[in-house]
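Notes continue from the previous slide.

Worked example: a multi-chain complex. Inputs as given:
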Amino acid sequence: MDYAGVVFLEILYMIAFLALISAGLAVVFGMMRVINLAHGEFVMIGGYTTIFCNRAGIDIWFAMLVLAPLVVGILGLLVERIVIRHLYGRMIDTMLATWGLSLLMVGLVTLIFGNTAVSVQAPIQSYQVGAYQMGGYNLFIIAISTLLMLVLWLVLRYTRFGLIARGAMQNADVASSLGYNPQRIYMWTFTAGAALSGLAGGVMAPLTGLLPSSGSLYIAKAFITVITGGAAVISGTLASSIIFGAVNQVVSFGSTPVIGEIAMLALAIILLRLMPQGITGRFFRNST
Amino acid sequence: MTGGPSFGIGRVRWAWFIVAAVIALLLPAVTNTNTPALLLIWALFALSLGLMWGFAGILSFGHAAYFGLGAYTYAIAAMTVGESTGPLLLAIVLPAAVAAVIGAMMFYGRISDVYMGVITLVVTLILFKFMNATAGDAYRIGSVRLGGFNGIPAFPILNLPGDPNVTAFGTPFYYVVCVALLLCYLLCRWILGSFFGKVLIGIRENESRVELLGYSAPLYKTAIFTISAGMAGLAGCLFANWAEIVTPGVFSLGQSAEVIIWTIVGGLGTLVGPIIGAIVLGFLKLLLGQQTVIDNSLVLGLILVLVVLLLPSGMLPAFSRWRVRRERAVVSRRQASSTRRRRGVRGESGP
């Protein structure tokens, strides 16, 4: 019984983790049809921001929940203004340019902080489930991921900004004839996506040590979650997070974590072959 | 060279080809062959991607999968057989076969560019993760341990067919690489000049029109994907012989990124472009590796961003456009000066 509880919590944690690290990429891909291959580096920089602000004496909660999204959001704004805005509508070129950016950021972070691992203590203690020791911080991640999805849905569905953003994505010409500048909307959407990536990085920082190359740990998982999910930001991300999280953890418990991850990647290939438009391209068509 | 779309199917410029071949073959008289051999192996790898991407419009975000498969196949087969001719052929055939399966799955499934990018990338990631996790004794093929992160060392290197005692090491190995590259270049030219190549370029320009003419685009795309993967496998096999060890690093994302950067910087839609791109950027990478101030990935990343933004077709096409423009400018200026009898305009550059 305890063991079943542990497995259940681990599956829940994996789903929350996937949703958290994919949210930023999903907003940018779903709303703008831009695939940001530097997403992993945004997450990594969010983590570095948290750890180094914490070392400078700033409260860790403030650092991860406010400073990390802020810093990475500003970085995203710069990236959009300097690079991305010249490449709208050229999907492959955007992928190549953001891949270049990802290498560039890895190089810069290596140059500044050195190629050594940095880490920070998790601010929540572990607890007992029967005979098993569980990380309390995992529960925090499940909570924050749920909250994030909820807020994202409320913003897109019920606020004026969400309405304008969705309108501009559906038909940029109509939005611009109604007086909303699509360029500006794209800019803020990309910035918001980057800030979400920064938040994910900040929140994940205490769990995993960080290296300049840590972004590559996140990009593949976020990438397959978002693409398999399809164009709908929230339902797509949730659906594929649930599928991949469950498969990864169940296979991992049955064999090794590496086999679990390989099973998840192989499943992604199969799902894409069966549903080339993603899950939400076939089911839940009219969802957000 | 007076403009007009040639769609890249130029004939072999034999004069240039012979000059390049002579320089390459005489190089061992001047310098150590270790570095040039590596650069030419990278050039072959870039050529394989350039053929597929530049002429059929198929971009693989994980071309390192086939490079790495070639390297691993050669290492495992050579250790099992103890001789190199069969393993060399297998290192071409196996990656090609894997690519044929994956390619058929993608192209007959009508999967769009972006999703293809994901699938090719994920295939490489699976191989990378798997090979990294094969450290135990349980992971062996025949009697060869896969060795996980440490890779497979000490396999037999290339030898004369039929005589395992005469091995290609040092300068002879450089000649093997050189000849392989020249032959593959000629093969690519022949493919592009053939009927098959013309259909491929048609697919790149307008896929639905080619399909309406009755050609099966998935068939042609799968075929070129397979050929390109076989060539990448050959490059991987040569790389294994150069390094004398294969590690999971051959499957890494960095390897896939590098070959894309070499190809696009050198020039899409040309065959010489990727070769030059690989040699120049590969040399730059080796130079940067000798110092610790500037990180290699910083420079590569910066180059990729700048090329995508400023020269989306790459260096070589940009250079030939610039040359055509300059020639035209010179001609029109001469006409202008001869008709109006004016002087002093010659110092200015073209528009």
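Summary box: Residues 217-243 of chain B form the longest helix (27 residues). Chain B touches chain A at residues 59, 61, 105-106, 109-115, 117-119, 121-123, 125-126, 129-130, 132-133, 253, 257, 260-261, 264, 294-305, 308-309, 312 (CB under 8 Å).
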